[in-house]
Design goal:
It is a single chain. This protein is α/β, with parallel strands linked by helices. The chain folds into two domains: 3-152 and 315-350, Quinone Oxidoreductase, Chain A, domain 1 (Alpha-Beta Complex); 163-295, Rossmann fold. The chain is 25% helix and 25% strand. It contains eleven helices and 18 strands. Strands 3, 5, 6, 9, 10, 17 and 18 form a seven-stranded mixed sheet that branches. It has a six-stranded parallel sheet with strand order 13-12-11-14-15-16, sandwiched between helices. Helix 4 crosses helix 5 (188-199) and helix 4 (162-173) crosses helix 10 (301-314).
Length: 352
């Protein structure tokens, strides 16, 4: 039987183990996919470092693009296109049942029977459900999207994590045109949000981040003003922003940002995905200023569809490809993780 490789994470180990797995034959509705590239997300690093709880053993990696190499029955993508061997694809991180109360209420990312790509148990026989591998087997409930061969993997890989999550947050924000926007965190999500707001003609885009390299980079992604704290870039204007996006999970900056929201302002929380200090709010101020607060975690398939469209539309207008600083083969994945940990680039890519 033919085999392929997967880099397996074991809880408590900070080194991934390259293991061999049998290559399965796809059943009804399944797709066998050769991985073209997979970028290392910050959540992957946090899992390996023990900062984030995860199933173990597992094959991590979810920001992925690949090519169909086998299927046993007709399969269509999200837009109804017939998929064939040779098609380049990506897919939603979340595999939902589409039937439970949460799925029926437009929250498939919180499905009661949710499975997540790059977050499931693996044994010696599979399943191959992580991007740090040669081959993956997508289940029939996967939501798949055909990808143009023209767009670079360095641009498109993060689309089914960072970009789609940003689009979900922008849906809650509503119209961005002529709005004043604060973005906390100039990581992959924050920079993508900046590019989105700029492309939708936001009036002002202020970035906050303590990482000097990232905050400088935000100038290429729409920033009109930058700083490491509010005192760096703000006057005593209590009605400065229509929209505040937090992609950093900084309780302190979230706390301070509420006071800068204007009447009818929106605070959209995305970055707090691990335990953090409690937030203290003033209910009267929220009520009198008509402030809305939203939480965003993962996304719906239509957000990924719009995220792909956004990158196709804006890939030449912003330096997305430069956010992937280095690429490593699968057999050197531990070197890639060490590089990502020590130098904290926006993204590192694995190309099996």
């Amino acid at each position: 039987m033919s085999t392929c490789r997967g880099a397996v994470f074991f809880e408590g180990e900070q080194v991934l183990a390259i293991k061999k797995f049998p290559i399965p034959e796809p059943k009804q509705g399944e797709l066998l996919v050769k991985v073209e590239a997979c970028t290392i997300c910050g959540s992957d690093i946090h899992t390996i470092q023990g900062k984030r709880s995860e199933k173990s053993p597992t094959i991590l990696g979810h920001e992925v693009v690949g090519t169909i190499i086998d299927l046993s029955s007709p399969v269509r993508d999200f837009n109804g296109l017939q998929l064939e061997v040779g098609h380049r694809i990506t897919w939603s991180v979340c595999f939902s049942c589409r039937n439970c109360d949460r799925c029926r209420n437009d929250m498939p990312q919180k499905c009661r029977y949710l499975k997540k790509f790059g977050h499931e148990y693996v044994d010696e026989d599979g399943p191959l459900l992580g991007g740090f591998s040669d081959i993956v087997l997508l289940p029939a409930q996967a939501t798949v999207f055909q990808i143009s061969p023209e767009i670079k993997s360095t641009v498109i890989c993060p689309v089914n994590c960072a970009t789609a999550t940003v689009i979900a947050s922008m849906e809650l924000a509503g119209k961005v045109k002529n709005k004043s926007v604060l973005i906390i965190g100039a990581g992959m999500l924050g920079l993508t949000a900046g590019a989105y707001c700029k492309s939708r003609k936001a009036k002002e885009i202020v970035f906050l981040d303590q990482n000097k390299k990232r905050i400088e980079l935000s100038k290429s992604f729409g920033a009109t003003k930058i700083g490491s704290s509010f005192t760096d870039c703000m006057d005593d204007n209590a009605d400065a922003f229509d929209l505040v996006f937090d992609f950093a999970g900084s309780t302190q900056l979230i706390q301070q940002s509420v006071d800068f929201l204007t009447i009818g302002g929106k605070l959209i929380l995305v970055g707090t995905v691990m335990p953090a200090p409690e937030l203290t709010l003033k209910p009267e101020s929220l009520v009198r200023k008509l402030i809305s607060i939203y939480g965003v975690h993962n996304y719906r398939p239509e957000h990924l569809n719009k995220a792909i469209e956004f990158l196709l539309e804006q890939a030449d207008n912003y330096p997305f490809s430069e956010l992937v600083e280095r690429s490593f083969p699968l057999e050197k994945i531990n070197e890639a993780i060490e590089f990502a940990t020590n130098f904290k680039p926006l993204r590192v890519m694995i190309e099996p």
